[in-house]
Amino acid sequence: MASKRDQRRLGRNAMAFVLAGGRGSRLKELTDPRAKPAVYFGGKSRIIDFALSNAMNSGIRRISVATQYKAHSLIRHLQRGWNFFREERNESFDILPASQRVAEDKWYVGTADAVTQNMDIVESYAPDYIVILAGDHVYKMDYEVMLEEHVLSGADVTVGCIDVPRMEAVAFGVMHVDENDRIIDFIEKPADPPSIPGQPDLALASMGIYVFETSLLFDLLRRDAEDPDSAHDFGKDIIPYLVKHGKAVAHRFTNSCVRSTSESSAYWRDVGTVEAFWEANIDLTDFVPELDLYDRSWPIWTYGEIVPPAKFVHDEDGRRGSATSSLVSGACIISGSRIDKSLLFTGVHAHSFSEVEHGVVLPYVTINRGARLRKVVIDRGVVIPPGLIVGEDPEEDARRFRRTDNGICLITQPMIDRLEL
């Protein structure tokens, strides 16, 4: 049986290259001040922490992160929370903003181009393999398992894939595979997705995770850079080219997903809409959530602010600081307020006689007296006025805030500032 050291050898010779430049426009005003990978999740983390933690826990000690859209919040988080890598231990952590390194008028024009523009930096570390990662999904995965499958199969590229109900795959890039999981066709958002052999009700959707041998990837990127008709994108150009001219293999997420004893299924979420973001956070308040953030064997690393513990005060009828079926982070003060089935990030202050139900409340929000909030996402730093009621009058909610079809209200400070109270 292979030793733990042997099992981690491929990871130590690999680099994780995280693509974290996307805006995530479907999150609406949540991504006005920040890129999607920098959006908060789970009470303490940012979305990008999941891909980075997976790499760290998989034994990968060289990581690069390409940023572009409104990157300050993301870069600041990475500098504060991911600055523990040491070159003397053969570790590195590079933040690679789109900085016109190639030409004065050229930003990153596609996911492949983001790597192409930084090939010299990657090459200086001489990794044997590169694991390309999307920085905007929530999941736990051991990339070492995918690396091992890549090497054993002799593939030119291995593509991470999830099983999805076949007709739900219309929103994904779908891998058409043979009985050996070799990819024979790649179809972007097909109207009639091909099924998995032997599983007619399921399709294989791309996770945006790719493993390459570094030298081969660089050859592909140089060829792609010279093609004036290319979008310089992995999903649109690089992967389809290898499907036709090389060997592309699908890796099943179920083979490498990390699950604690309490997690019954493989968990992967694209929290790319306000509803999906709200639902994934609220799901964490379940008695046994589908995603176990308490699993110490696979920690989600992040920047941990030094703050005091959460505090609950007042114990009077109608004015009792309480939280039920909720996650309450450090520095929160629940002062005579009732919190139910909600997730509160760091530093939330809920004043007396206020109520929050099914709320996702981002850091340093103030909820003033008498406010009643149901099915809400409240952006960082918002000050909720006294007596504000949300979640009881759909027409009024839609007039004042961003309201989804299922009644989730996104509240930002500019929306509050426009209120006529």
TrEMBL record:
The record marks Q68, W107 as: Could play a key role in the communication between the regulatory and the substrate sites. Residues 308-411 form the Glucose-1-phosphate adenylyltransferase/Bifunctional protein GlmU-like C-terminal hexapeptide domain. It comes from the Bacteria. It catalyses: alpha-D-glucose 1-phosphate + ATP + H(+) = ADP-alpha-D-glucose + diphosphate. PANTHER family: GLUCOSE-1-PHOSPHATE ADENYLYLTRANSFERASE, GLUCOSE-1-PHOSPHATE ADENYLYLTRANSFERASE-RELATED. Homotetramer. SUPFAM superfamilies: Nucleotide-diphospho-sugar transferases (SSF53448), Trimeric LpxA-like enzymes (SSF51161). Pathway: Glycan biosynthesis; glycogen biosynthesis. It is an enzyme of class 2 (transferase). PROSITE patterns: ADP_GLC_PYROPHOSPH_1, ADP_GLC_PYROPHOSPH_2, ADP_GLC_PYROPHOSPH_3. Residues 16-285 form the Nucleotidyl transferase domain. One of its GO terms (biological process) is glycogen biosynthetic process. Alpha-D-glucose 1-phosphate binds at Y108, G173, E188, K189, S206. Belongs to the bacterial/plant glucose-1-phosphate adenylyltransferase family. One of its GO terms (molecular function) is ATP binding. This is Glucose-1-phosphate adenylyltransferase. It holds the Pfam family NTP_transferase. Involved in the biosynthesis of ADP-glucose, a building block required for the elongation reactions to produce glycogen. Catalyzes the reaction between ATP and alpha-D-glucose 1-phosphate (G1P) to produce pyrophosphate and ADP-Glc. Keywords: ATP-binding, Carbohydrate metabolism, Glycogen biosynthesis, Glycogen metabolism, Nucleotide-binding, Nucleotidyltransferase, Transferase. Its EC number is 2.7.7.27.
